[in-house]
Amino acid sequence: MTTPESDRVIDQRIQRVVPLTTPALLHHELPLDDALTSAVIAGRRSVSRVLDRTDDRLLVVVGPCSVHDPAAALDYAHRLRVAAEQHADDLLVVMRVYFEKPRSTVGWKGLINDPGLDGSGDVNTGLRTARALLLDVLRLGLPVGCEFLDPITPQYIADTVAWGAIGARTVESQVHRQLASGLSMPIGMKNRPDGSIGTAVDAIRAAGVPHVFPGIDVSGTPAILHTRGNADGHLVLRGGRGLPNYDADSVAGALAQLRAANLPERVVIDASHDNSGKDHRRQPVVAADVADQLAAGQRGIVGIMLESFLEPGRQDLDPTRELTYGQSVTDACLGWSDTAQVLETLATAVRARRAYTPHPTPA
Q1: SS3 breakdown of the chain: % helix, strand, coil, rounded to 5?
Q2: Within 13 Å of residue 260, how many CA atoms lie on the same side as its CB?
Q3: Looking at the domain assignment, is residue 199 inside a domain?
Q4: DSSP element (H, E) containing 234
Q5: What is the mean pLDDT of residues 70-99?
Q6: Is the pLDDT of residue 360 over 80?
Q7: CATH number of residue 68's parent domain
């Protein structure tokens, strides 16, 4: 006799359960070899040195809003590698390779959750596809950056990542603060969508200390994780409530909040989202303002984020037509030609900051 779903004590609203591959098995199928391991560690150390300002370059996290086409993303990576090498003296370029798309309501949740772009939810394929792309990007010599949204998926891909982020919607979550405290790479905490900076400052403090929480180990076994705390937490300014916070006064205010909390005074500017009014064409305007601040000697700005892909703008997922190659299906992105110009502008500004001499204060 079949029990009606309404009479079940558990899984009343679970339609089906699919076994999940273990992190250890995925690592075995798609291993991080010794050379790539060294590259990841070198990338993390480089990011840490930029954050600590022992390296005076600017961190630039740049790439698609959310990867939907691995082939196009790898094509982008080939172009970005050339630019990264060109500007290596002034910019530390990290490719944004995001696979999890946070949603305020509903929509495509990213390549890991739905690699077929069709709602089928083949997470096992998504994890394999994501890890394979990360290894391909690393082989080109580019460090990679990811946002961590689901607390389980880092066991599958975090060993490849040089820089990570906790997003604006999850920065207040205890689960994500605990997760960040145990991650092996520097983590940027974004201010909340309403523009609140204090919440992200609290997240940096929370992630900087040890925590104990349940999770999974690399074998996929439930485990109690004891963390050491992450000393490389930092603030990412992305605007809020339709208002920007990348200007000099906003940056000064953010640095003051960090100082009051006894945290390192360092910020990364997200040129997209509310800082650009969600208009990809304004990202160069934001970058130009940041460049002016750098050239005027602002050393509290340690990095910038850009949403960029091969083609400018965005497109909707539509099963009735073929997608435009290299164009975002989530947030609108800069095209490659505009991205190259922005990187040049930022590199020039870093050289100007390096040469900047403050005017003496009158006696």
Answers
A1: 40, 15, 45
A2: 10
A3: yes
A4: strand 233-237
A5: 98
A6: no
A7: 3.20.20.70
Q: pLDDT digits over 137-150, tens only?
A: 999 999 999 999 99
12 assigned to some structural domain? no
Q: Which burial class, exposed, middle or buried, applies to 345 when counting CB atoms under 10 A from its CB (0-12, 13-18, 19+)?
A: middle
pLDDT of residue 105: 67
- Distance between alpha carbon 143 and the CA centroid of its chain, in Å? 12
In-domain check, residue 2: no
- The owner of tokens 């944004």 is 96
**pLDDT reported for residue 5:** 66
**Confidence at residue 9, expressed as pLDDT on a 0 to 100 scale:** 80
Alpha-carbon span 294 to 299, nearest angstrom: 7
Q: Are 235 and 189 in contact (CB under 8 A)?
A: yes
User: Is 349 a member of any domain?
Assistant: yes
Of the chain, the percentage scoring pLDDT greater than 70 comes to 96
Query: Can you name the residues that pair with 72 across neighbouring β-strands?
Result: none
Supply the range of the domain harboring residue 87. 19-311+328-354
Residues 6+ apart with CB under 8 A from 119: none
Measured CA to CA, the distance from residue 120 to residue 20 in angstroms comes to 15
Predicted pLDDT of residue 229: 98
Domain count, the chain: 1
> Among all chains, which residue has been given the structure tokens 């906790």?
166
Residue 362 has pLDDT above 70, yes or no: no
Q: Between vectors from CA 158 to CA 155 and to CA 164, what angle results, nearest 5°?
A: 130
